[in-house]
Amino acid sequence: MAGKAGGSRIPLYAQVKRELLAAIGSGEYSPGVPFVTQREICERFDVSHATAVRALNELAAEGYVVRRRGQGTFVADNPGARPRADRSIACVLQFQGPHVSQLLAGVESACAELGYRLYLRHCEGDPEREARALLDAVHDQVSGIVIYPAQGSGAEDAYAEVRRAGVPVVMVDRYRPDLAHDAVVADNLAAGRELTEALIAAGHRTIATLWDETEATSVRDRLAGHVDALRRHGIPVRPDLTVLRRYRDLDPEQRRARLTELMRGSRPPSVLLCANGYVLAAAAQDLVGLGYDIPGDVDLAGMDDAGPFDVLPLTVAAISLPSRTMGSTAMHLLHRRIAGQDTDNAPEFVVLPVTVQTRGASTGHLRVVGPTDA
Predict the structure, then answer these.
(1) In angstroms, what CA-CA distances link 285 with 30, 116, 147, 200, 289?
(2) Could you read off the pLDDT of 303-313 as tens digits, one per residue?
(3) Considering the entire predicted model, what is its pTM?
C-alpha cells in the first residue's frame, strides 16, 4: 500500500498496521527512536485520525511499540517478543469495606466494557506494599494503573519508575499533590461544607470532629469545607473541636477519655461529625459505654457513608459518596490515556458531586440508649 489506503477488503487500519510492521522490520524505525505520529500516519496514508489511532493501538497491544507519557511512541526494545497484548490493568487499593468495594466494582465494570483484564492488589495503607505493587505492575507490563493511594508521602521512587516506563496512572478517591497524575475524586470540599450546612440547619452550632486518617487530601479538604461553613454562619472555629487528630486508632479507653473531655466541657458539642462510618461506629459504641443516648444527649453525623453498616439510620445527616462512579470514571480516563485519545499530557483532575442525606430522608432511624441504673 503506497500513499492512499484502499482497494482491498482488508480494513484500513489493518493495512496501515501491516505497512508500519514492514517499516519496523526493515529497520526504518529503531528502538529508542521516536515512531511515526498519528498525524504523520494520517498524512502518509491519507486515512482518518480514528484509523491511525487504531493501527497504533494494535501495535502497542501486540508489543511492537511502547508509549512513554510526555515523550511519544517508540519501537519496543524487542518488538513483538513480550507484548502488552492482554490489555491488563493493575488496580491498587487501600483497606476494605463498602466504599472500596464499590470503587472496585466501578473499575471492574469499565474493564469488562473496554476489554481489559484486571489485577487487584490491596495494600492496607502501607506505602511499602504500595511501592511493591507499583513495581510489580511495571514488571508485569500492565497497560495502566488505577490506584487509591495511601495517605501522606511514600513510594516516590516506585511512582518515578512507573513514569519512566510510560505506564499511565489514574488516582482515585484522593490525590498526591506532590505527584502529577490524573485523579478522580469526590467533591470533598463540598462534602465538609454541605454536611456542616445541613447540621446548622438542623439547629446544631457546636460541632466536634472525629477523624480516622489525617494526612489524606480527602480529609484535609473535608476539614476545610467544614471550617468554611462555620465561618459563613458566623460560628467561632474552636481548635478543640476541629483539631485534626486520629480517633479510631486509639484504644477504647483513650477514645472514651477523648469523648469525656468533649462532653463534660463548658460548651459540649451537640453533634459529633465523624470522618467515616468506621469512626461513627466506634463513637456510637463509646458513647453508649459512657451512658449517653443517641440522639438525645448527642447526635452523630458522617462525612461519608463508608463503614461496616448503613450509617444513615444512626445519623442526623451523612454524605453519600459516588464510589462506583469514581471507579468507572477513573478507568475510562485511564483507557483514554492508554489509547492515546488525550493528546494533552497535562494531568486531568475530575471532581464528582456528593449527596447529603438527612435523617428525614431515611425510611427509619435508630435510637441508641446508654445503660441505666437498675
Answers:
(1) 65, 43, 33, 25, 6
(2) 987 766 556 67
(3) 0.73
